[in-house]
Amino acid sequence: MTAPVISFAEGDALLDWIALTDALAEGHKLPKAEIADTFLYRDPDTLLNRSAWIDGLGLAVKCATVFPGNTARGASSINGGVMLFSDQDGTLEAIIDFHLVTKWKTAGDSLLAARRLARPDSERILIVGAGTQARGLHAAYRAAFPQARFTVWNRTAENAKALATEIPGLEVVSSLKDAVAQADIITSATMSTAPLIQGDWLRPGQHLDLIGAYRPDMREVDDTALQRARVFVDSRDTTIGHIGEIKIPLQTEAIVQDDIIADYYTLEAFTRHTPEDITLFKNGGGAHLDLMTSRYILDQWMAHR
Predict the structure, then answer these.
(1) Which of 4, 113, 269, 298 is found 20 to 30 A from 171 (Cα to Cα)?
(2) DSSP one-letter string for 77-133
(3) What is the pTM of this model?
């Protein structure tokens, strides 16, 4: 049998945010993933391969090409695909569109934490950043908190206004400080290298979801936010030594590793002790999450054949 090629449009129509988070939770009950990344460079272009193997779930290789010059030609600068292989015999089971896996993996990763850490009665959700990820985050959080009102803040206000024209009911806000203070959930996906969100702006009962920082020099919140919150990560292996949001405050001893309460391999620890807790989740991603998401996508595709 020829392995299917699952396009973005075909796969996107079949998926459900709550079911995906359940699949991610189940995936973390399996043996811990082996993961590895490789890079090839031809200035200014990059080929990134992220690989994962989970015993009982299979293998995945996510290939991403980054060609910055594409933007000037009106084309996407990032492209690629995910190859999913059988755990039983290593045969190719599917090739899945890169953007499909990335959209659902990224927002689903954050939503799993929010379903366990955010207050169920959360009514105001702030999206910080109006880039590609903002659309997926709005869809994901709306699935779990259908009663919530959404606002968006972006450094370039025009981009926030453009996003609001696409999403009915999304309100653009001009003051990040005021918007943070009013929100029950803050989900941030920016390219910031300096903290945007200040811990002194936070109030009891909030949940903070951090997605944007992915390099050792990137941060979206300051030390005070980490010190005031109960801190969780999706994976200790892909965040502590790799992402500035966690790495920098550990190096300066603003926090210590014991301040990181749990990752998804101890998912039972993802709890809110009191309604007044401030909870903070760092979404670091990782090839193991690409594998879990790809398996969920293929399962749904097969169920609808």
Answers:
(1) 113
(2) SEEEEEEEE-TTT--EEEEEEHHHHHHHHHHHHHHHHHHHHS-TT--EEEEE--SHH
(3) 0.95
